[in-house]
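For consistency, the fold was encoded as tokens, as this record shows:
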Amino acid sequence: MAVASLLCRQSAAKLLGATFDSGLGCVVVTVQGDGVTAYNLEQRQLASYPLGSRPNVEFATASAQLSSAGADKAIMASIVHDKAASTYTLCHHASGAPTRAIADAPARVLLPGPAHSCHILHRTPASNPTGAPAASAAHPQPLTAVVLADGRVGVSASNPEPGGTALTLLPGASAAPAPRHLLAASSHETLVVTSQASAGSPVTLRVLQLSRADASGLAQVKAASLPCPGGPGAGAAHAVPTGLTLSAGYALLQWSNGHATAVHGIQGGASSPLRPVVFPLADAVGANGASSSAPAAPAPVPGTASGRKRKPAAAADNGAPASRPRVLCAAVDERQFLLLDLQTSAAQSHVCFSLHDAQFGVPLASGSVEVDAPLLSLEAAECAVVAAGPEATVVRLGGALHVLHVQSQPVSLLSLVARLSVSAAAATAAAGGALGAGQQQHQQSRGAAAGAACGRGVAAALAELPAPVALDPTLLASSSASGAAASAASDDMADVVLQLVPDASVSRLDDICNSLVAALSAVQPYGAAPPQALLDSAVSYISGRRQHAMPVPPQLPSLTARGLAAARQWGQLASLLAALPAGGLSGCSEVLVAAAAAAQYGLLPRLSTCLDEVEPGALVAALQLLLAPTTRLNQAARQQHYAALRASAESRVAEAEALAAAVAPTPLLPPRGRGGSRGAAAASDPAAALALAQCAAAVVDGFSYREVLLHPLLAVPVDGPAVQVALRRLSGPAADALLGYLAKWAAKYAGGAIGEAAAGVVLPQELLFPYYHQVGGW
């Protein structure tokens, strides 16, 4: 249900920030004094741009990037601060341009003052439906919006050509005095900016969208004033906004006092007002959120990191409460938001999570996921949500960026139940008006105290919200109301008689894991095949744990894979690999050699993805086996593998042809290899489908039965010097064949058969191929 992976790790002092490129589905990381690097969600580096070596030049904000679906170029926007000249400059850079420093980009726009953030806004085809008025149509080209430190917003064309376009400041956006707390978030054509003059004061939220009706191309469509949530006891007098995320349906604003405000009605014109809803995050964590399903953290031991004194948060938040809750929240989609608890299981390096309905705050699912980060030693200010969406949530923990994949949950029925419960509570409160004056006053005082303690004073506001989804009438239809009531009563009675789960049953899974590891490690001699019953138990155990998003010790999958290869149980090995994430195998590179020796060519792509690191000696040994000439012994297996690759590539070409001819294509297979969300875009975008077809055709065209076997192995990240030493053991004929194979890839890249479009195309796993820099490295 949930998986976490480390995207990259930098120095916490130099990691300036990160943004998300929705077109390419990648994270753009800005490192102070170094440059900008783009990673896809599978931890693969796509591009890198240096800042430059000029003295007194540094990044002012995190850079932003926009890649159009199917395009072979991306636009990068960076704000550079020249400390010697005390100037701030907006620089535009194209990925397809000759490599040069960002500070020396030809497209430069001088800014009137310090900047807070920059955003590239663009419209998608879905955001301009047929029949929309011309005033709301898409702007001819993307625009770069710069949020200045004083709260003003400037707009410039996202043009990487020399000269650039002057910055246009939006009218009526000047802020005097400058806001003390400023946040901004963007999604496609929408930019949301929040500003607060001082801690505890109301926050002004502005919604800006692209529009041809305005000369600058960007106009403010609506605004609202949001009071600080919580009563005096909840720290409302010192609350400041700490995080802002944006989805297609609402904006989610997090506060320093453990609350969050979901502002619905972001999309639409000025006629649809903004509807803020407040959720107490601390109650969600303590009552029915993520922490309730996570193991309890032990008490801190004196002298450990958890027992050290922390600096007051007020020093960093300028008036924020001294103990900021260590929770994060992010808008996942138009109906749900994600809550992350960084405190409860920090000692076990676990982040507890829970999904909530964005209309009512109803918990939909909860659990925990392990991360590679020192959670106990991190301050609240060092943790933030970088980007969030249906694909994944990117979280910054100190100097590391982690990608969290949490499966979304259906919310229709739960939203109905939440609305009925809120309505019932409102009806009960209304019925209390028939009580006596003294008794009513006494109950009201008790209710107010309970609401202040539990943070559930938002029930009245929730009851006024419209239904978030269109309900199916058949769900509400019932032949007998009494029968439904009796069924509900029987369910309640069944819940009452449930017995508690013994502690021994909870620890039984860990005992099974330890026994499996011990049994697999005890197999003698080394490399012998373990008993089949033991292998069956290990594969079943790992698949079950992975299916329920439970952690698996890294040595168990590696020992199991090694045992399956020794027993030549290739079908079970394929099932094991399907249950493991990328990089889930470590220390068993010999499995790759065994699969190549047994002519199990279909396992090579998945093994190349699952192996955390392939030893150079094992990689060269596998290459030696695959570079052997095709003979009668291996011809059938190689021909069958080539035919499968050819069929997969031809299906992509047929889909692109059908889409170009405006014929409904066959749905694309779900991407299992590189990339992130581009596979869904290719299903409806002819340009993306064409780029996908070009890369798929390049994988098989011009290559022999033997050469297509090398694609996944050369796509594995390697240590260049170590592989260079190991390649000395490659035979002369095999080395000549490898050079001929690399020459074919070099010709394809140089001739423009695929070009830079390969960096953003999602291919099925069987069609993996090496990128241009990997071909040059080999």
